[in-house]
């Protein structure tokens, strides 16, 4: 009898597998192992494929709340990070650095069988359960992904309401690249205003910032600009400091979703600032060097920041499914698309691109985060019809006004002033997506307080 060798054992196992095709064989330089499944019920069950579109508040919350033992996950998004949007305005003037408020999506724990594609989702086929995507690179590769369940959380675009010139000449504040563009524009204008030979009128225009929209984004951006001018411009651009003007244009009242008393306090604080104007008017045209109002007023502008309204993305606009008048996807109490052809639950939508038909909710980060958390847990159910519906309890709203003051509209309390500012900072600090960000953001705040803001133009 011949002595068994690793080679002969391997040959025996390979021949045995040929005769018994259900045998999964694993080999290594040190050993050979195998297992024969005696019945079909012993075969490991295939995980379902969950496809998530987006990496914003809703998508990221779903991803982190999901029980991975039920799903192989595919995330499709043109950006590979989660952005903490409540602090985005702080990066426009250097109070915070850009990387201090973004968290790479792969940090959410992708395994070897999970996928992330840096791509745009361009088409969804609900009946055949497929998503068409185009890579976000020069190759523009187009491919199709199958899914068992789908979460659409692509957010929304800024709505310009077809105002002439807004798309071309105004700056938006939705992404990190928007904040970087605004920061560079502000610094370029301050440097240009110091060039010899400029008229006083041109210098004043370069240093005039117009903000369109009096929601939290517009108000907080104005607050950051005010702090920047008061502490850093006065020190580094002394000749520019007295010429800086900020005009906030709002058709109705600023911070409309806040309590009336807090609105009045915010308006009072803004009007008290030197060279800061609050206008109740409507913008009808945006030019390269001006903003035209409905009243006929023409405001010379070196920078126009547009922060009002939401509009659907191209993929959402192209979907032939039930939507509201704003173009958002209609969903039921389980956040399932009304157009989903599979009653047990196949396609869902959350965040700014969706609209809860029976109980509409505001388009805020808080709502999207709660919807994502709910949906992550709901995915454990094979049939969602017997599960509890989504419910939302508002934790309140916060806004920074500058000068270490703010407003906090909570369920039982209405807070203003420095107390609200402390609450604003502490609340957002605890909500940052990772320990790294919770360490980096207070370090940036400390650095700004001690050394001032970084005015390097990138």
Structural notes for this entry:
By secondary structure, the protein is of the alpha/beta class. The chain has helices at 6-19, 57-65, 88-91, 166-169, 176-192, 200-206, 216-236, 238-241, 260-271, 314-318, 365-378, 418-431, 435-451, and strands at residues 25-27, 32-34, 48-53, 71-77, 81-83, 102-104, 115-125, 130-135, 142-146, 149-152, 157-158, 171-172, 208-212, 245-250, 276-280, 283-286, 290-293, 298-300, 303-306, 310-311, 329-331, 347-349, 354-356, 397-402, 405-409, 414-417. It has 3 domains: 6-42, no CATH class; 48-156 and 312-386, FAD/NAD(P)-binding domain (3-Layer(bba) Sandwich), CATH 3.50.50; 166-308 and 396-451, FAD/NAD(P)-binding domain (3-Layer(bba) Sandwich). The strands form 8 sheets. It has a 7-stranded mixed beta sheet with strand order 9-8-7-4-3-10-22. A 5-stranded parallel beta sheet has the order 12-19-13-14-15. A 3-stranded antiparallel beta sheet has the order 16-17-18. α2 runs parallel beside α11 (365-378). The termini are far apart.
């Amino acid at each position: 009898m011949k002595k068994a060798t690793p080679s002969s054992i391997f040959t025996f196992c390979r021949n045995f597998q040929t005769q018994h095709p259900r045998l999964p064989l694993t080999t290594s330089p040190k050993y050979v192992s195998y297992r024969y499944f005696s019945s079909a019920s012993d075969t490991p069950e295939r995980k379902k494929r969950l496809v998530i579109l987006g990496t914003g508040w809703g998508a990221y919350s779903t991803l982190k709340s999901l029980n991975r033992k039920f799903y192989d996950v595919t995330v499709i998004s043109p950006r590979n990070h989660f952005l903490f949007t409540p602090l985005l305005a702080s990066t426009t003037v250097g109070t915070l650095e850009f990387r201090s408020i973004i968290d790479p999506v792969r940090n959410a724990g992708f395994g070897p069988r999970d996928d992330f594609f840096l791509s745009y989702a361009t088409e969804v086929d609900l009946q055949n359960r497929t998503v068409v995507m185009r890579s976000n690179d020069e190759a523009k590769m187009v491919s199709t992904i199958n899914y068992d369940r789908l979460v659409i959380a692509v957010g929304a675009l800024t709505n310009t309401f077809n105002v002439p010139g807004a798309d071309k000449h105004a700056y938006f504040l939705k992404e990190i690249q928007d904040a970087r563009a605004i920061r560079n524009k502000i610094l370029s204008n301050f440097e240009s205003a110091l060039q010899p030979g400029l008229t006083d009128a041109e210098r004043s225009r370069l240093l005039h910032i117009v903000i369109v929209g009096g929601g939290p984004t517009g108000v907080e951006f104005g607050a950051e600009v005010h702090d920047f001018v008061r502490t850093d411009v006065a020190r580094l651009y002394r000749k520019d400091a007295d010429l800086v003007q900020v005009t906030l244009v709002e058709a109705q009242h600023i911070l409309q979703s806040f309590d009336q008393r807090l609105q009045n306090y915010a308006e009072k604080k803004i009007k008290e600032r030197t060279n800061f104007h609050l206008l109740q008017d409507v913008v009808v045209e945006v030019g390269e060097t001006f903003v035209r109002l409905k009243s006929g007023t023409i405001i010379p502008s070196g920078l126009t920041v547009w922060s009002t309204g939401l509009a659907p993305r191209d993929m959402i606009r192209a979907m032939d499914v039930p939507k509201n008048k704003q173009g958002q996807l209609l969903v039921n109490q389980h956040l399932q698309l009304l157009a989903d052809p599979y009653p047990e639950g196949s396609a869902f939508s959350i965040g700014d691109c969706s609209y809860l038909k029976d109980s509409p909710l505001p388009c805020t980060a808080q709502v999207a985060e709660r919807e994502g958390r709910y949906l992550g847990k709901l995915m454990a159910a094979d049939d969602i019809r017997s599960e509890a519906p989504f419910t939302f309890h508002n934790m309140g709203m916060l806004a920074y006004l500058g000068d270490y003051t703010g407003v906090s509209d909570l369920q039982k309390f209405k807070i203003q002033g420095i107390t609200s500012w402390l609450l604003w900072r502490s609340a957002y600090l605890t909500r940052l997506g990772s320990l790294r960000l919770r360490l980096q953001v207070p370090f940036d705040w400390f650095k700004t307080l001690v050394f001032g803001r970084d005015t390097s133009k990138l």
